[in-house]
Amino acid sequence: MDKQHSHRKDEHVFLAEKFYQPQAQNGLADIRLLPTNLPEISKDEVSLTTTLAGKKISVPFFINAMSGGSLETAKLNAQLAEVAATTGIPMATGSQSIAIKYPELASTFSIVRQKIPQGIVIGNLGASHGLAAAQKAVTMLQADILEIHLNAAQELIMPEGDRSFYWEKNLQEIIKWLNVPVIVKEVGFGIRPTTFKQLKKLGVRYVDLSGRGGTNFAQIENQRRPAKDFALLNDFGLTTAETLLASQAYAADFSFTASGGIRTALDIVKCLILGADNVGISGLFLHTMIKKGVSGSIELIEQFKSQLRSLMTLLGCRTVADLRQVPYVLSVALENFRQQIQTKP
């Protein structure tokens, strides 16, 4: 077993919690929703049902990728999976690359399927891996969906990370031949609009935009560098709000997951209004699990469900699709960004 790799997994969890910010800088505060004064709706009419990678889910949010690959993160995966099973929401694991290389660590991931025998489980692998590894990752979890993450910035800052990034062939083969849907996922730096043109050519249909504002892997990996010489990238990339706005022109070709610094039910609603079909949450759920355990995490998720129904009632929306019609106003800075991004190739 690669003890250094396993230790890195533990470091990531420790540093993610160390740098956790209750008030995320995801740009969603720059979006103001206009109230509906005559909602003409009852809360019990609201449906939270939506889709994730083409699969029906009962609520529009899920536990996004976090952990696995060490004994400590195996415990965390088991706890998160218990929460997911109890609340009926999907769950993604962290990157399974270490378990592909060292099969004896597969149990740190497969515990998730053991705890969630019926619900949706999402595997996770980096884009440097090919089809054979993707198939192993799916088999390991009996996964319903596989996330393929794009993390060039993280790898370059990571002391032992990759320095070569030829990913398109892998993506194309995995999308074409894997027997489960694939979500192509950023890891907190957002997605440039022109990237969608490349992804469409590769056959990608599902994209996790993963904007800046939540868990910051530039900051985390820089903390692991002896000289800590990459703080210059701490603010690199597009915020969650920016990448949602930038993606709107490509909505006809993709189904979007929003993620990056989600802290409240209002954040979730804003993401859905801006075009996401669902929302992934990592840092908040990690923080809650560490501070309040399984019971506190379940309580938070159930609170989100109730608050989402209340917010949708307030906005006069019976379905997630209805939220797309809610009017909103952008801050001057965010509106300026929107206008500039529309003029760039």
TrEMBL record:
Mg(2+) binds at E155. Its cofactor is FMN; Mg(2+); NADPH. One of its GO terms (biological process) is isoprenoid biosynthetic process. Gene3D superfamilies: Aldolase class I. GO terms for molecular function: FMN binding; isopentenyl-diphosphate delta-isomerase activity; magnesium ion binding; NADPH binding; oxidoreductase activity. InterPro entries: Aldolase_TIM (IPR013785), FMN-dep_DH (IPR000262), IPdP_isomerase (IPR011179). The keyword Cytoplasm applies. Substrate binds at R8, K9, Q154. GO terms for cellular component: cytoplasm. Pfam families: FMN_dh. It catalyses: isopentenyl diphosphate = dimethylallyl diphosphate. Its EC number is 5.3.3.2. FMN binds at S95, N124, K185, S210, T215, G261, I262, R263, S282, G283. The keyword Flavoprotein applies. Residues 25-97, 149-325 form the FMN-dependent dehydrogenase domain. It is found in: Cytoplasm. Keywords: Cytoplasm, Flavoprotein, FMN, Isomerase, Isoprene biosynthesis, Magnesium, Metal-binding, NADP. Involved in the biosynthesis of isoprenoids. Catalyzes the 1,3-allylic rearrangement of the homoallylic substrate isopentenyl (IPP) to its allylic isomer, dimethylallyl diphosphate (DMAPP). PANTHER family: ISOPENTENYL-DIPHOSPHATE DELTA-ISOMERASE. Homooctamer. Dimer of tetramers. Belongs to the IPP isomerase type 2 family. This is Isopentenyl-diphosphate delta-isomerase.
